[in-house]
Amino acid sequence: MLELLETVSAQLVQKKLMLATAESCTGGMIGAVMTDRPGSSAFYAGGFITYSNDLKTRLLDVPEPMLTQYGAVSAAVAQAMAQGVLAKTNADIAISVTGIAGPDGGSTDKPVGLVYIGYGLKGGPISVSKHNFDGDRGAVRRQTVEATLRHILKLVEVL
């Protein structure tokens, strides 16, 4: 993952882009990985850890009815979280994650390992990808962080 982080951060710096994050199931792991690299203030603005629905609503303006209708782990909420990050920061790129890392909390409709990643550019559409990761809680969270780095790279490479 270190090599991927180096590639992502180099691309962000080269293109003078700032990233901000909204994390739920990863609890700040994306921000921690981004700030593992010295000089990360050149490309990482910061992030929100919004584990509770209350904070998703209060900090990121995720509509409460959306949380009730679709649940916190949903494409709609991932999209709203990413939009909230872009609205609340000066970042050029937003990444959001919401999912079920386990070992509890899964259901038939939303099994452990289900993660939605929202990503997009300021002023552009927000895309959401659905992932079904395998393994225990740590594995699901690590796979989520790696997937977010790949989404960021894909976004930045086309600019």
From TrEMBL:
Location of the CinA C-terminal domain: 4-155
Stored SUPFAM superfamilies: CinA-like
One Pfam family recorded for the sequence: CinA
Protein name: Protein Implicated in DNA repair function with RecA and MutS
UniProt source species: Micavibrio aeruginosavorus EPB
